[in-house]
Amino acid sequence: MFKRPPKQLSAYLQYLFTKNFTTMKKIDVFETVIKQKSGKFFKIAVLRANVPCDPSMIEAINAEMNNAVSEYVGTKGHNTFVEEHPDTPNLRIIISDLNDIDFVPFDGQSL
Question: Per the CB 3.0–4.6 Å rule, which of 7, 32, 88, 94 could disulfide with 45?
């Protein structure tokens, strides 16, 4: 749970840090479980903050997303990937069991 922020913060940050705020309430999630040919499973989740990406709020959004990832994964081992463009801080991709994925050699595959 967050402490109350100083009064000089913007209305947006005041909203994010309200008394009973639970991180995941402002987050949308897409999840999929993938079964591999080997029979092993792994999960991919995409978390997206349902807030405007105001450049002046990037630091606060990053903190919010980091908290959301922590809340989502709990104590489960995972790998987290952040959108490469710093102006899109509201997206995190999480993969469980990355070390157990049955990778194959790259041979011209594409999306």
Answer: 94
